[in-house]
Amino acid sequence: MMNINFDRRKSLQELEGEDWGEPEVSDSSLIKTCMWLRRVPLQDFTTENLRMMIGQKISLFFLVPLALETLDQDPLSEGHFYAGDLLNAVLSVPESYWRLHTEQCEVLRRVFIRAKTMLTDLDETESNALCNDLKGIPDFLIDS
After folding, report:
1. For residues 112, 114, 119 and 121, what is the CA-based torsion angle, rounded to 10 degrees?
2. Measured between alpha carbons, how far is 133 from 89 in angstroms, rounded to an integer?
3. What's the CA gap between 127 and 139, in Å, rounded?
4. Of the residues 55, 71, 130, 139, which has the fewest C-beta atoms closer than 10 A?
5. Is the dihedral of CA 81, 85, 88, 94 positive or negative?
6. Residue by residue, what is the 3-state secondary structure of 57-125?
7. Cα distance between residue 67 and residue 87, in whole Å
8. DSSP annotation string for 3-48
9. pTM (predicted TM-score)
């Protein structure tokens, strides 16, 4: 797998050395949750936590490798929505990230290929949702 060179016992706040402070009362529950997750040790992140934070493009340097570890074990890892929702979040990571992290891009390619072969194991609703996500895979992940 990939070489991950950071302490999973630390939070994003500790690793990045940046405290985002406390959320405002008027902030959405998504913002409040993301701000709270910045204080949670990475070893305690769930699939849903990874899906949410990556979907918001927060701390990709630390969270994408963790998500890829999860996806490498199960390409259809599921947060709170449907089988493959973590993969969908990772597929939304900007191309510029993948161009800088080519080793991780190779892992994503491998995960993507495995996910496509697993579609027949899903019920029709989950399969349709994931098929729509997989249609949107960026060309650079297939062509490079």
Report:
1. -150
2. 9
3. 21
4. 139
5. positive
6. CCCHHHHHHHHHHHHHHCCCCCCCCCCCHHHHHHHCCCHHHHHHCHHHHHHHHHHHHHHHHHHHHCCHH
7. 8
8. ---S-TTSBHHHHHT----PPPTTS-HHHHHHHHHTTSBGGG--HH
9. 0.83
Structure tokens that stand for 6 in this block: 């950071």
Residue with tokens 């449907």: 82
Over the chain (144 residues), the average pLDDT of each successive run of 10 is 80 94 87 94 96 96 96 86 85 91 90 79 65 64 56
Tokens of 16: 């990045």
Tell me the CA distances in angstroms from 24 to 27, 31, 35, one per residue in order: 5, 9, 10
Q: Nearest CA to 24 among 35, 16, 39? A: 35
